[in-house]
Specification:
By secondary structure, the chain is an alpha+beta fold. It has helices at about 1-20, 25-60, 65-70, 170-180, 205-210, 215-220; strands at about 75-85, 90-100, 105-110, 125-135, 140, 150, 160, 185, 195-200. A hairpin with a 5-residue loop joins strand 4 (about 125-135) and strand 5. The radius of gyration is 28 Å and the shape is extended.
Length: about 230
């Protein structure tokens, strides 16, 4: 659309220039050149503005809180990658944090895109904590891209690159179990407002959980007890 409008403006400018009394006159040629440059420059600026706006509006990841992911998940597991293929991998579960299944499960690789990239390769024996939902074919899907896949280092720290740091794995596991005990969530998975939390414990116990576990505090910091 923008290119078509630019072509029309240039054609119109050429016609106007062609009807001048002396097309080769230096003043007329200079005026033509300046006008053409102005049209092209305005079109380039408009294009850059539209591209920037589209990127900002359409390509920001909607990061889902763990306070939503944990109640909505079917399986939360700690284990290691055993086999990697193009679109999925075999995962040996060492600890079922939530849910139960056979120890060797198939997990589909989450789709990487502009605002959510896996900055390290899938490797054999790589340790992960996964937040999963189950597909009809029996395979599992990682929830919310990289948010639902925690890469665990040898010291049990979480490899988060430049994102908000998380505590070490034992604290995360304890915090997950606290969330399972403290809240349920009945709203839309990608809700940006009107969160439908149900609290399952007293206000004093909820506050105690927030004060005693950093992962629980991070995951529930936006929740008031009345929610």
């Amino acid at each position: 659309m923008l290119t078509h409008e630019l072509q029309i403006k240039i054609i119109s400018l050429n016609k106007r220039f062609a009807t001048t009394e002396n097309p080769t006159d230096s003043k007329s040629h200079k005026s033509y050149t300046n006008t053409l440059a102005l049209i092209i420059m305005k079109s380039i600026l408009i294009t850059f503005f539209l591209v920037f706006t589209m990127n900002k509006v359409n390509f920001d990841k909607h990061t889902v809180s763990y306070s939503i992911m944990i109640p909505k998940s079917e399986l939360i597991v700690d284990g290691n990658i055993k086999y990697v293929s193009d679109n999925q991998y075999e995962f040996l579960v060492n600890d079922f944090i939530k849910g139960e299944d056979k120890r060797l499960i198939t997990v589909k690789k989450w789709k990487e895109w502009q605002c959510d990239n896996r900055y390290t390769k899938y490797e054999l024996e790589q340790r992960l904590v996964l937040f999963l939902t189950k597909n009809n074919d029996g395979t599992y899907e990682v929830m919310n891209g990289s948010t639902g896949e925690l890469i665990i280092n040898k010291d049990e720290s979480v490899d988060r690159n430049s994102r908000r740091p998380l505590p070490k794995l034992p604290i995360i596991k304890e915090g997950i179990k606290m969330i399972m005990k403290a809240i349920d969530y009945k709203g839309d998975f990608y809700a940006s407002s009107n969160f439908k939390y149900i609290t399952l414990i007293s206000s004093s116990e909820f506050e105690n959980f927030q004060n005693s576990n950093d992962f629980f505090k991070i995951a529930t910091r936006h929740i008031s007890f009345e929610d």
